[in-house]
Design a protein that fits this description.
By secondary structure, this protein is an alpha+beta fold. It is about 30% helix and about 35% strand. It is globular, with a radius of gyration of 14 Å.
Length: about 120
């Protein structure tokens, strides 16, 4: 596995731990729908929370939260819609972003952005 993949997996594990510590229940990680993937699917008891995780080295050029463009948002929304249909989820869906910074061997949560984006209306 490449260093980038290792960093991403470590970031997702740290994000899952952080979410659990803050009262979320993790339902799925790395859930796939065709070529699309949801990093973390969780619930806070009131909402289904789809979390995109972005991990960067401490000397990054583009902030993690700015690396999620419209095409990525469309893929996440399509996968979330498939998840809701497959599991017959009756909760409202919220899209969050957790950005992490890797300093040496350790990853830490830099920011948790609730309602980071809305699903596009025209898919």
């Amino acid at each position: 596995m490449s260093k980038k993949n290792d960093t991403g997996k470590e970031g997702e594990a740290v994000a899952c731990s952080w979410l659990r510590e803050h009262g979320y229940t993790i339902l799925q990680t790395n859930w796939r729908f065709h070529r699309y993937e949801l990093d973390i699917v969780a619930t806070n008891g009131r909402e289904l929370v789809v979390v995109e995780v972005k991990t960067r080295a401490e000397n990054y050029l583009v902030p993690p939260e700015q690396s999620v463009g419209l095409s990525k948002i469309r893929r996440i929304a399509a996968a979330a819609d498939a998840y809701v249909q497959k599991y017959k989820v009756a909760l409202p869906v919220r899209f969050d972003l957790i950005s992490l910074t890797q300093k040496g061997p350790a990853c830490t949560v830099s920011e948790h952005i609730k309602d980071a984006f809305l699903a596009p209306v025209n898919g």
